[in-house]
Amino acid sequence: MGIASEFKEFAMKGNVVDLAVGFILGAAFGKIVSSLVNDVIMPPIGLLLGGVDFTNLFIALNGQAYASLDAAKLAGAPTVNYGVFINTIIEFLIVALAIFFVIKSINQMKRKEVPPPPPNTKECQFCKESIPKEAIRCPHCTSDLKS
Taking the domains of the chain in order of start, what are their residue ranges? Predict the structure, then answer.
């Protein structure tokens, strides 16, 4: 068996395909969360804080003032982009919360009650003691149970 056929066999196993699908869905979910944070959550928060655009919160390390982060980047100024960092933290918290709820629902589905196994004992017809189902003689009263 050659390397190419071994790799093909490995790549076509269910785990690898599932991992690839999960990675693609995760990347798409990340884009959705980024849009949710940047386009839906942060603008109202910025408005409540006096019209602050979090993506433009930065510190220019060269000591000069710039109108926006884009202007600072265009000038080649080194910056600490703490507004973008705040957005990233919020994105992480939303993703973590979503994963928490997914894992919680999966765990709840796994916890469904498993019916108890059927009893492995029976009652002796003479002394009414509990005995193994396969018993042919009662260990308590020594009665013959074949009949």
Answer: 3-112, 117-147
Instruction: Please list, residue by residue across 21-50, b when 16 or more beta carbons sit within 10 angstroms of its beta carbon and e when fewer do.
Output: eeeeeeeeeeeebbeebbeebbeeebeeee
Q: Tens digit of pLDDT for each residue in 56-105?
A: 889 999 999 998 889 999 999 999 999 989 888 888 888 888 888 888 88
Residue 142 buriedness (CB in 10 A; 0-12 / 13-18 / 19+): exposed
Q: What is the CATH number of domain 3-112?
A: 1.10.1200.120
User: The tokens of 51 are what?
Assistant: 């019209």
DSSP code at position 41: I
